[in-house]
Amino acid sequence: MTTNRRKPAGRPATIPDVAREAGVSRSTASRALADYGSVSPDARERVRAAAEKLGYRPNLLARSMITGRTHTLGAIVADIQNPFFAGVTRGITDAARAAGYQVLLANTDEDVAAERAAVKMLRDKHVDGLIVAPAATAETGHLAAAHAAGCPVVLLDRQVPGLPADSVTVDNHGAAQDAVRRLLAAGHRRIALVSLLGSAPAGGPAEAAGTPADAAAVPADPVSTGLERIEGYRAALREAGITDTDAYLRTGTFHREDPADLTAGLLSLPEPPTAVFATDSMIALGVLSAARDHGLRVPDDLSVVTFDDTDWARAVRPRISVVAQPVQELGARAVQSLITRIEGTTHAPEHLVLDTEFLDRESIAPPPGA
Question: Which are the contacts of 40, defined by CB distance < 8 A and separation ≥ 6?
Fold first, then answer.
């Protein structure tokens, strides 16, 4: 039965308050609010109506102490301003919400120290698992420690050798190889690649990593995605009989080299490239900026291809040919893999590879004079 006792003004509503308002026992109210056990439809409806009337909010901390779960996931991405990671994050949040989870997001700016701090912060908040786009392939002790402590980790867009974690990527090598083959088929032989690979420059000369002496410094700990795209670029050139696959290869480090400057150096060569392959859409903007500064027209003077189908790539004229990645699906599949681990699956780590699609638009033409 209901009583005349009322919840004191200003105090958050509790389960006993909801029980009194609904005229049920505390245990019935608890079961109805947590949606477990046996509760009649009438009692359940009265409890929910009372909870809404009183503005009841469940104590998630108390619930997590009982269940061992917070129903929150941590997502650590490299650059939320990059359209690729913005799309991936949308896929993560949509899939998590559909599964009854909330997402706490951290941005690293491709910095390992920031990534390490983000992992600590999210673990302190007792997230049930982590989705991480790692900023490096070697400095990953914090990820290994989280995994060893029972916090499942799923790698997004990149892989870490030796870390026993699920990963979700695309076939970066194959997609890059296919894109360069298309430039070769258009008649190009001087094809450049511009990429940013990591956050820390190597201590030795650039030649140690296979790039020319006038190229930007190669990171000591590059991310796997960029390396795989470079290897696909080299493979396509070798197929075409081009033995010096690094003559037009330029790599830099995040926040240290400007893709426009790397491209400007290429365009100032005695025999400049007639086509440029950019490994992501942010780099492609730098490529287009340098081409404009050199008075070059795309594709009449310079063909351009990039990874990622962004809004601007469709809006500019000529429209840019791209390797389109299933960005939201990448995020959604990472969530599915993580929840499977949270629920106790113990099978061997899996590497899920999603398909890309080449969208041939208006930015590829035969080289000048062909």
Answer: none
Give the end-to-end CA distance of the chain in Å, rounded to a whole number: 90
Contact 258, 287 (CB under 8 A): no
Residue among 242, 228, 254, 296 nearest 110 (CA): 254
Residue 209 · residue 248 · CB < 8 Å: no
Helix boundaries (H) for the chain? 15-22, 26-34, 41-54, 60-67, 83-98, 112-124, 141-148, 172-185, 224-239, 259-267, 281-293, 311-315, 327-342
Rounded to 5 degrees, φ, ψ at 25 are -75, 165
Q: In terms of DSSP bridges, do strands 357-359 and 321-324 run parallel, antiparallel, or are they unpaired?
A: antiparallel
User: Which residues are 266's β-sheet partners?
Assistant: none
Which tens digits make up the pLDDT trace of 237-291? 999 999 999 999 999 887 778 999 999 999 999 999 999 999 999 999 999 999 9
Length of the chain: 370
- Omega before residue 318 within 30° of 0, cis: yes
What mean pLDDT comes out for the span 289-312?
A: 97
The candidate with the shortest Cα–Cα distance to 278, out of 144, 365, 176, 354, is: 176
Rounded CA Rg of the chain: 26
Distance (Å, whole) CA 298 – CA 291: 8
Tell me whether strands 191-198 and 249-253 are parallel, antiparallel or unpaired.
parallel
pLDDT for residue 206 is more than 50: no
> Cα-flanking dihedrals φ and ψ of residue 121, to 5°?
-60, -45
Measure Cα distances from 185 to 234, 236, 237, 272 in Å: 15, 11, 11, 19
User: What is the spatial distance between Cα 253 and Cα 197, in angstroms, rounded to a whole number?
Assistant: 6
| DSSP-assigned letter for residue 193 | E
CB 88 within 8 A of CB 328: yes
Q: What is residue 354's DSSP assignment? A: E
The pair of structure tokens assigned to 68 is: 């061992």
pTM for this entry: 0.79
On the CB side of 63, CA atoms within 13 Å amount to 15
β-sheet bridge partners, residue 1 = none
SS3 207: helix
Contact 362, 319 (CB under 8 A): yes
